[in-house]
């Protein structure tokens, strides 16, 4: 439940205030930053697995690496899936979660402040895409978040990094809930994918 996907010309209404981006990137810049973030996160997990220092240091490296992967694996998956099905993009924006209402207080404020990437697909390319193509595009981000976060935690647990098993258990539970929520919340990726197939 992190980033989202929008068109570059999405209208706003009086009941839906316009949300601004904290930063914008070109496609090349956004892909480079996100790929670098995921590579850096994987490298930190490698360090946590390889060193024999204090457990708190290894756990800290793991957690920082996890956050780097979590923040950077979602929108780039939308982009890759979108390009495979023929969509075009103008770039990326960065802002907090698009559905803060699904989080409890405390976590809600954290998710609103977190720097999540948003793919900016063009309206014309989405209008030309078929139902299955749009469903694949919408579903890619949440699927990537689940796969990457669980895989990262599983690798940490397998390497016996302190806290790795706890992280794995938490990510399995979190992603199970996230799958349900994003399928039931109108702005969720899976809900958009379901609507695309049914339209």
Strands of the largest sheet, in order across it? 1-4-3-2
Which of globular, elongated, flat, extended, rod-shaped describes the shape? globular
What is the string of helix and strand elements? EEHHHEHEHHHH
Radius of gyration: 17 Å
Total number of domains? 1
**What is the beta-strand fraction?**
5-15%
SSE-based structural type: alpha+beta
How much helix, percentage-wise, in residues?
Answer: 55-70%
What does this protein look like?
By secondary structure, this protein is of the alpha+beta class. It has one domain (4-198). The protein is 62% helix and 10% strand. It contains 8 helices and 4 strands, in the order ββαααβαβαααα. The protein has helices at residues 27-50, 55-72, 75-84, 107-113, 123-128, 131-158, 164-184, 189-198, and strands spanning 4-7, 23-25, 89-95, 116-121. The chain has a 4-stranded mixed sheet with strand order 1-4-3-2. The longest helix is centred in the C-terminal third of the chain and has 28 residues, at 131-158.
Secondary-structure blueprint:
Blueprint: E1 4-7, E2 23-25, H1 27-50, H2 55-72, H3 75-84, E3 89-95, H4 107-113, E4 116-121, H5 123-128, H6 131-158, H7 164-184, H8 189-198
Parallel strand pairs: 1-4
Antiparallel strand pairs: 2-3, 3-4
């Amino acid at each position: 439940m992190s980033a989202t996907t929008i068109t570059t010309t999405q209208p706003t209404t009086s009941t839906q205030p316009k949300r601004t981006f904290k930063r914008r990137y070109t496609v090349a810049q956004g892909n480079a930053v996100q790929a670098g973030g995921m590579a850096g996160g994987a490298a930190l997990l490698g360090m946590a697995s390889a060193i024999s220092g204090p457990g708190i240091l290894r756990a800290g490296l793991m957690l920082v690496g996890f956050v780097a992967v979590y923040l950077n694996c979602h929108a780039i998956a939308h982009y890759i899936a979108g390009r495979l099905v023929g969509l075009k993009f103008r770039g990326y924006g960065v802002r907090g979660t698009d559905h803060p209402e699904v989080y409890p207080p405390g976590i809600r404020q954290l998710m609103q402040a977190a720097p999540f990437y948003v793919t900016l697909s063009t309206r014309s390319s989405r209008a030309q895409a078929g139902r299955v193509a749009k469903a694949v595009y919408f579903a890619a981000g949440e699927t990537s978040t689940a796969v990457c976060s669980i895989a990262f935690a599983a690798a940490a647990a397998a390497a016996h990094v302190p806290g790795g098993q706890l992280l794995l258990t938490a990510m399995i539970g979190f992603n199970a809930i996230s799958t349900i929520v994003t399928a039931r919340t109108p702005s969720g990726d899976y809900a958009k994918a379901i609507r695309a197939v049914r339209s």
